[in-house]
Amino acid sequence: MIKQIEIKVFPDKVNDQVYINSLIKNQLKDEFDQVKSIILTRKSIDSRGKRPWYLLRYDIYLVETFIKPQIISLGFKDVRDKPHIIIVGAGPAGYFAALECLESGLKPIVLDRGKDVRDRRKDLKAIQQEGIVNPDSNYCFGEGGAGTYSDGKLYTRSHKRGKIDKVLHLLVEHGAETDILTDAHPHIGSNKLPVIIAAIRTTIQKYGGEVHFNKKVTDLLLENKKLMGVRCEGSSYMGEAVVLATGHSARDIYQLLYDKNISIEAKPFALGLRIEHSQAYIDQTQYHQAEREENLPASSYSVVTQVEGKGVFSFCMCPGGLVVPAATAPGEIVVNGMSLSRRDSPFANSGLVTSIELDELEKHGYSGIFAAMNFQSDIEKSMFEAGDGSQKAPAQRVEDFVNGVVSPDLNDTSYIPGLISSPLHKVLPLFVYKRLRKGLIDINKKMRGYLTNNANIIGVESRTSAPVRIPRHPDTLCHPEVEGLYPCGEGAGYAGGIISAAMDGQNVIKAVKKWIECKKEPVCEE
Ligand SMILES: Cc1cc2nc3c(=O)[nH]c(=O)nc-3n(C[C@H](O)[C@H](O)[C@H](O)COP(=O)(O)OP(=O)(O)OC[C@H]3O[C@@H](n4cnc5c(N)ncnc54)[C@H](O)[C@@H]3O)c2cc1C
Asked: How far is the CA of 29 from the centre of ligand 1 (A)?
């Protein structure tokens, strides 16, 4: 029998196992003598009261003993002589699709336009310090995808889309801390993610899969609406299926599909700015303490409000983090957020974005399949033009932004390329500015002090989600027009974050396997 219990402890006692055991014993009373195993299943923080406390949930094994879950990678097979599956993109979707291939007896051949995690660092340094953007290796492109140098937040609301636990266990099997299995808001951090990603690559190769870097896919090899493979500069790769997991910033892939008459669809997305407060202020509002007490992590927040029926909301909040330049081409400015595992920078940043619908884009002169993508791109260029030709980002103090005045100077920032005081209220399209402005005023009523000149607002947070969707059949997950083409992950419009992208990669390979088995079965219905 398994009994679930919850224990509440203040932060000063959260690591005191003797004290916690005494609380468990008190709750179980006589049953305590039958306990075989005590397993922590969830750890969360409740900060609604005067002093925050931890809520620890345990599974108590009475009579029966806890059996450790099976190690997933023990089920991987050698796939050297198995059917080839071409996976374009080594982001979470692509790499977890590749791992799923190892379980499914399929040989993954992963192609990425960028470099491996280690070499990629040089290009990140060049963006940060010299303002040079390599269009194939940056914060979005390269091994591990956009998730590598990120905050590494691992929570998702997409519980119905797949097995979150499986993704988390695979991350642990490749070096992540076991805490991610129990924390209510798990995160890994940019200093640890590259090691985990490199370990995933080693697993793929160990079982006979292939991973190739500096392989930008530039063409799809079609024969009578069946996809036979892909072409990169200088080489071609053929396979039974092609999983297209190129992320939301691969504009050339959307263009390629369009040029080849493969249907894609315009899609609403979210756009706004990144707001940076001091972490001390966020801690004060979330924990109600003048100074964060020991054993509490840098606090996070999530805010949402409605302005004229459209959402204005925080996105990808990074406690104790850094604002980073996430442009994928020269001549544009894009910002995003990341953090190290300790989340110990003195800054707290978050996207503050609003939904951009296709009908309003039409009213502002953007129509057709690339309406959202062109709008996104035009704003990123305007942000660059507002700067000095480097990756310095246009910024304003928050109250100045709301009041529509240029800030005479700016607050300190974590953004390494530096900020330039700019009239963001004019650089943004008026309808976006008005909505963010009203959103900030509303949010400030819920979170006092949020709208302050002690915080900066930085442009532009434009890569929140894909501006284009690549359609696929809801059951077979294959593109409705092209046999063998499997749109996957965030770039195709089926994920939003590391975990949901990884789950989509797994789901797509399950569908590919079913299809390959079906082809062998003459009576198969699909
Ligand atoms: C700075 C930053 C911080 C983030 N923080 C978080 C976070 O904390 N938590 C979270 O859940 N999400 C976060 N995200 C979002 C998350 O990273 C993405 O949702 C996720 O990575 C999407 O996974 P994907 O595999 O679908 O695509 P991507 O990760 O975008 O991977 C796509 C891959 O395809 C490759 N590619 C593109 N075009 C081609 C081509 N033509 N040929 C070959 N390869 C190609 C790219 O090089 C890239 O490696 C963050 C994103 C950024 C940029």
From this structure: 50
| The two three-digit tokens of residue 179, written as one number | 């805490």
In a domain, 70, yes or no: no
Residues 409/411/415/419 CA torsion (nearest 10 deg): -10
How many domains, in total, are found in the chain? 3
Atom of ligand 1 nearest to the CA of 252: 41
For the segment 446-495, what is each residue's pLDDT rounded down to a tens digit?
999 999 999 999 999 999 999 999 999 999 999 999 999 999 999 999 99
Distances (CA, A) of 60 to 14, 18, 37, 455: 18, 16, 6, 46
Question: In what helix (H) or strand (E) does residue 426 lie, and over which residues does it extend?
Answer: helix 424-427
Å from CA of 499 to ligand 1 middle = 11
Q: How far is the CA of 491 from the centre of ligand 1 (A)?
A: 8
Handedness of CA 404, 407, 410, 411 (dihedral sign): negative
CA 483 to chain centre: 29
pLDDT band at 526 (very low <50, low <70, confident <90, very high): very low
Q: Are residues 108 and 46 in the same domain?
A: no
**pLDDT given at position 312:** 98
Residue ranges lining ligand 1, Cβ < 6 Å: 88-94, 111-114, 139-142, 145-147, 150-153, 215-217, 245-247, 250, 253, 316, 324, 326, 336-338, 489-491, 495-498, 501
Angle between helices 164-173 and 92-104 (to 10 degrees): 90
CA 324 to ligand 1: nearest atom: 1
Alpha helices in 138-222 (DSSP H): 164-173, 193-206
Determine, yes or no, domain membership for 71: no
Domain ranges, residue 46: 2-62
Atom of ligand 1 lying closest to residue 111 CA: 43
Each as own residue / partner, the long-range contacts of residues 253-257 (CB below 8 Å, 24 or more positions apart, any chain) are: 253/88, 253/217, 253/491, 254/370, 254/373, 254/468, 254/470, 256/218, 256/219, 256/220, 257/220, 257/470
